[in-house]
Amino acid sequence: MVAEQEKMGRREQKKLKARNEILDAAVSQFTQKGFLETSIADIMKEADMGLGTFYNYFSSKEDVLLKLLNRSAESFGQRMTAIMQETSSNREILHEMVMFTARLVAENRYLLPLLFTEAMGHSRSKGSRPEGMDPPKFMGAFLNIIRNGQEKGEFRQDVSAEIISELFHSMFQGAAYSRVDISFEENIEMKLKLLIAGISKD
Amino acid sequence: MVAEQEKMGRREQKKLKARNEILDAAVSQFTQKGFLETSIADIMKEADMGLGTFYNYFSSKEDVLLKLLNRSAESFGQRMTAIMQETSSNREILHEMVMFTARLVAENRYLLPLLFTEAMGHSRSKGSRPEGMDPPKFMGAFLNIIRNGQEKGEFRQDVSAEIISELFHSMFQGAAYSRVDISFEENIEMKLKLLIAGISKD
Amino acid sequence: MVAEQEKMGRREQKKLKARNEILDAAVSQFTQKGFLETSIADIMKEADMGLGTFYNYFSSKEDVLLKLLNRSAESFGQRMTAIMQETSSNREILHEMVMFTARLVAENRYLLPLLFTEAMGHSRSKGSRPEGMDPPKFMGAFLNIIRNGQEKGEFRQDVSAEIISELFHSMFQGAAYSRVDISFEENIEMKLKLLIAGISKD
Amino acid sequence: MVAEQEKMGRREQKKLKARNEILDAAVSQFTQKGFLETSIADIMKEADMGLGTFYNYFSSKEDVLLKLLNRSAESFGQRMTAIMQETSSNREILHEMVMFTARLVAENRYLLPLLFTEAMGHSRSKGSRPEGMDPPKFMGAFLNIIRNGQEKGEFRQDVSAEIISELFHSMFQGAAYSRVDISFEENIEMKLKLLIAGISKD
DNA sequence: CATGAATGAGTGTTCATTCAT
DNA sequence: TATGAATGAACACTCATTCAT
């Protein structure tokens, strides 16, 4: 019984390992060639596994992207929890989480399209949004921070939190495709300064 | 002679009509399905013309996009010239041109990818930039307005004009894919308020 | 009446002129890019005439090639007549006509495929041989020279004239695609020496 | 383990079988319609397999031709090695290898264009020479035989071996498209007689 | 007779997805 | 579960040919 269980455990572990290897390979390929230019065959070649194996773990390339986003979202959530215990200034929280996201995105630029899900390629995918995923974590988190800040009077209230939140997202998007020759983080940092100035109560 | 000329004129006119029908069909399809998801066959089916006809007028799908962009750029340039004669306040010019662009983009949402040229498909296009087009009018124009504003002390100078300009572009991008249920123009208007506040000298 | 006739003559002349302009353009294009790589549009662009006009004079690209061959065949025939009055040695005649052909082909390399008609591209052409043309002049001429030479005992008779003639044609073909770095004429001259030695009575 | 191996063997075998079926279909189509006139779709229809399957085995139509050529080149090389142990007379070697090639080509007429590589389609192929193949075996082999014969005084030396070698190739080319109603081998045999006479020391 | 816009069958090639092993 | 060969729809693009003007 125990042996059986252990065996199952081993299997599960092995399965998980394979899954992660595919995810890593995907990251590597997406980073090198971009999402659209990466074929599933590319990923599995990098992962050094059979092509068909892919479908034992994921249902499509979009699905992979989603799972990668979840990975990051988890990390994001942890930082969020931590920071909220350190300070109650929404301005500070916002600053920290934006910069945290900047570092996250800098290393996983390919997942940017998912922050704005509509911007995705999803050419051959039938449904417009793969099942099994609530709307982006990031968007929601920023939205909450801003709402809280507005309620506490830290941020101006004449513009809806949704709109402001969108603007923060745009900032990431734009920085990702920047032509200005500075690092992604620096780019975000400067824009963040402007935005925070813009939304602060005068 | 006159008859000849008229005849020629008829042909030319018909050709121009066909060209415009294709452009319109492209706009319609791009708007419905996005640029990448639209095939040339789609366009020509919508235009109710033969597939091959496309190539009598355009050399590729990118070419169409470019021509559409030029169309808008021209209009943009005219407004720019006009507004600069009305006022010398860069803040006002910026406001007006952003809103003008907003209206332009609202009707031609598909051309947004071109504002950030890097967002394009990029993979199969041979040359990195299709011939016959100087660097983006819009980007450049906003950059100039902001620079002028900085020089005249209207805008803060601790963040480079390039970065600010990028942020304006991002704003458009984000608004185009907004989930907030207001019009594109309103969306832009609100964000513009924030940005202008953000870049203004305190 | 006379005026009418003259007018007709003018027309005919004009027509002939157009026809020749197309032929010349074809020569130019075939020479530059080869037969298969040249499109009818290419030819008519070079000829600076409308695309449709082509079909008033020729029925297909193959047809043009054929007409060009006829042009050369005529020139060939004239030289043949001349040389036959100068000498009665078939060996000499053969030598002269081969070298004459060499010069002809050197300047019109594109028509080589027609010497071996089967080698042609004729991809989309329905019938395998366009109407209105007897089998190649050149082949026939060489055949006759060799036959005569065999009858007069100048050439060996244990190999049929057809076979020998074919070998001469092959020689041209091969020389046209030679990798040896000498002129087409020199190439032919050397091979001719070998062939004549080979077919001479010992 | 053994079972595993056998299983792998089965797969490999099946793959090899498929590969050969495609090659055979290609031979059949090339023979029927020529290389240029055969489309990949034609080949796969004849092979009764899906179109895409082609690209699991070959990268292009040229690639197929190349593989077919390699097949023959291998066979050619073996005969060459054998004959060189039987005799040291270059005249005999030349005769034997020409006749061997004749038999080879008779059964694979489509590969003739490759003997003169320049005769190929050439237009759309990216690199000028597909990778994975040293310069033509046949051409090189004949060249060597002739060179050796010249050095040993068997063949005349006033014409370069390259030129002579070219003439042999032309002979094949010509025989392939012969109109004379004898077999390919007989055709070659007769021409060979002439050529050998032509290149022999008097 | 001249024109050139319109046409659509045809081409090579890619790739997500399936399925027998 | 892992595999990778098989698949065919989809794509961008070419070009000989037609036909209304």
Quick structural gist:
Chain A has nine helices and no strands. Chain A has helices at residues 2-33, 40-46, 54-57, 61-86, 90-107, 112-115, 137-151, 161-176, 184-199.
Provide a descriptive summary of the structure in words:
Chain A has nine helices and no strands. Chain A has two domains: 1-58, Homeodomain-like (Arc Repressor Mutant, subunit A); 60-199, Tetracycline Repressor, domain 2. The first copy, chain A, is elongated. Chain A starts with a helix and ends with a helix. The longest helix of chain A has 32 residues, at 2-33. The model of chain A is unreliable at 116-136 (pLDDT under 50). The first copy, chain A, is mainly α and 202 residues long. Chains in contact: A-B, C-D. Chain B binds a DNA duplex (21 and 21 nucleotides) through helix 1 and helix 3.
